[in-house]
Amino acid sequence: MRSLIIARRTRVLAPSRLGLRIIEAHGCHLIHVISEASGDLVWLRWFDIGQTNIQSIIPLKKLRVLELCENWRQADHRLLELWVDDCDAPLQLRELIISYCKEFRRFPNSIGRLKQLRKIVLDSTKHLESLPEEFCQLQSLEHLELNSCDGLSSLPNSMGNLRKLRHLSLLGCKKLGRLPDSCKELRLLQHLSLSSCPNVTFMSDIMENMSNLEYLSLTCCYQLEELPRHITNQVSLRELHLEHMWNLREIPVKIDQLNKLQKLCVGGDLLTSLPASLGDLSSLTALEITNSTSMECLPDSLGRLSLLERLEIDDLGVKSLPESISQLTNLESLWICRCPISELDLGVGSFSSSLSKLKTIELSDNDLLSKICISKDCCAGLETLTVEKNRNLTEIKELPSSVRNLVITRCPKLSALPSFAELTSLREFEKIGCYQVKKIEGLNHCRELEALKAYTWWEMPNIESLEYMERLRVLHLTGMRKSVVEGCIQSMEKWPGEIKVSTRAVRNAASLVNSLAIPTLSVVDSCSNVQTERKQGPKLVFEQPTNGNAIIVCFVVRTPGGAQMIGVSGDSFSTLSSYAKVEEGAWVWIGLFTQRSKWYTSNAYEARFSGENGMVEKGLVAMVEEDRVTEVLRRLLGVMEI
Question: Cα separations (Å) of 489 from 465, 469, 512, 534, 624?
Answer without folding.
Answer: 8, 12, 18, 38, 17
